[in-house]
Amino acid sequence: MTSEITTVKELQKMDPVFGQLSFDNHEQIVFCNDKDTGLRAIIGIHNSVLGPALGGTRMWNYANEWEALNDVLRLSRGMTYKSAVAGLNLGGGKAVIIGDAKTQKTPELMRKFGEFVHSLSGRYITAEDVGMVTADMDTVRDVTPYVTGISESRGGSGNPSPVTAFGVYMGMKAATKFQFGSDNLEGKKVLVQGIGHVGETLVDYLVKEGALVQITDISETRLEEVSQKYGATIFRGDDLYAAPVDIYAPCALGATINDETAYKIQAKVIAGAANNQLANENVHGPILQERGIVYAPDFLINAGGIINVYGEIAHYDKAEAMRRTENIYNTTLEILGYANANNLTPQKAAMAVAEQRIEQRKKENATK
Ligand code: NAD
User: Fold this and answer.
1) What range(s) does the Glutamate/phenylalanine/leucine/valine/L-tryptophan dehydrogenase C-terminal domain occupy (predicted)?
2) Distance 7 CA to ligand 1 centre (A)
3) The domain containing residue 134 runs over which residues?
4) What is the domain count for the chain?
5) 118 within domain boundaries
6) In angstroms, rounded to a whole number, what is the distance separating the alpha carbons of residues 130 and 247?
7) Cα of 70 to ligand 1 centre, how many Å?
8) Of 205, 197, 176, 336, whose CA–CA distance to 273 is shortest?
9) Is 338 found in the same domain as 253?
């Protein structure tokens, strides 16, 4: 007798990995467990056609294993697109460690994690993500060479955030040119949401160019600091999405473009650092397009960080990383043009360009 399946949850229980909604033909998923250190981690390798799967390790207190698996599947897939569209010879991967980074992260746990990374012989290369700092990558480096984002004193590239901010700035200028006919940000009203590592440097670039910058953050201390340092105005309105600005730069959380905000946003350009800004790319991307808002795809314009650590794989050269990051300007213009010509949203256009590059390489590899 066959039982009736009614919910996605039930389906997922039957096919807990390949049946996950976020599963998208991932090549390999590695579950790592170590009783002594308490390590429970998942490494997701989404696609390695273009090169080794590079992506950060996130340590997060996930509510359950489903959430952790879903996160690693989603994030590793995102890395495939990010590297492919940035023109890097890298595949997409990501790792999650289940636990509280503040209380459960120990050098022993990080070393054990490094051993698991090493066991993949370079198919996956790790880096820093939420819950990790450069010192953790240095610990991982003690047991494996398959790690980037290590300290400059150890030959690494250090903090990627300033490079990410530069790339976002380039992407924002390109999207502004596409929308307004000129990439000059002088006098443009820009709202930066989240003035952390990336947001603050972005504010610096914007203020220097003469943009009228407003900032929001959940930290009042940060707001005061950044406002005083750069002369940016603290946004004090009730609803930042309805603010009459030219450009909205999400640099805090993902999914800020959602059912509640997509019809409300007044900005004519959206360009920021946060990952996965569109709550649903199939729904919210088209709404922005219909409303004439130019959306610079997040994974395209926040690639400065990965471009920076990419340089570490051979020999790190800061100037080369900045040159490649500057090119985000050209790539963004190309993709916005391609989207327009093919009646695609910019997000779908960027994904198509990434997929074309992967398919092309697959063909080349097959004929070798
Ligand atoms: P961060 O943690 O340094 O800064 C985030 C800031 O956002 C903090 O100041 C925080 O107080 C603020 N914030 C949190 N919730 C908020 C809310 N609801 N409203 C307003 N502000 C809020 O992070 P970061 O390194 O600057 O990264 C920012 C975003 O860019 C993240 O989504 C990150 O995943 C993404 N990103 C970062 C890099 C990088 O190189 N750091 C690379 C690619 C993508």
Assistant:
1) 158-366
2) 34
3) 26-73+90-154
4) 2
5) yes
6) 26
7) 21
8) 197
9) yes
Between the CA of 19 and the centroid of ligand 1 the distance, in Å, is 31
Options 94, 105, 112, 348, the catalytic residue: 94
Please confirm, yes or no, whether 35 is among the known catalytic residues.
no
137 in any annotated domain: yes
- The answer on pLDDT for 5 being more than 60 is no
Whether 202 and 273 share a structural domain: yes
SS3 for 155? Answer: coil
43 carries a ligand binding annotation: no
Residue 11 scores a pLDDT above 70: no
For helices 161-180 and 318-326, angle between their N-to-C axes, nearest 10 degrees: 20
Asked if residue 194 and residue 100 are part of one domain, the reply reads: no
* Protein residue with its CA nearest to atom 41 in ligand 1: 161
128 and 204: one domain?
Answer: no
Q: Ligand 1 pocket, 218 CB below 6 A?
A: yes
Shared domain for 126 and 177, answered yes or no, is no
For the cut 70, the answer to whether the pLDDT of residue 7 exceeds it is no
* Ligand 1 neighbour 160 (Cβ under 6 A): yes
Which residue has the least CA distance to atom 8 on ligand 1? 196
CATH code, domain with 130 = 3.40.50.10860
Residue 283 has pLDDT above 90, yes or no: yes
Question: What does the pLDDT read at residue 316?
Answer: 77
| Protein residue with least CA distance to atom 27, ligand 1 | 198
Spacing of C-alpha 7 from chain mean position: 30
Indicate the pLDDT class of residue 2, thresholds 50, 70 and 90: very low
Distances, alpha carbon 127 to alpha carbons 79, 89, 153, in Å: 12, 16, 16
Q: Are 166 and 135 part of one and the same domain? A: no
Residue 133 near ligand 1, beta carbon < 6 Å? no
Res 158: pLDDT? 82
- My answer on whether 134 and 265 are in the same domain is no
**pLDDT at residue 311 tops 90:** no
62-66, 153-157, 324-328, range with greatest mean pLDDT: 324-328
CB proximity list for 290: less than 8 A, separation 6 or greater: none
pLDDT band at 101 (very low <50, low <70, confident <90, very high): very high
301 and 175 belong to one structural domain: yes
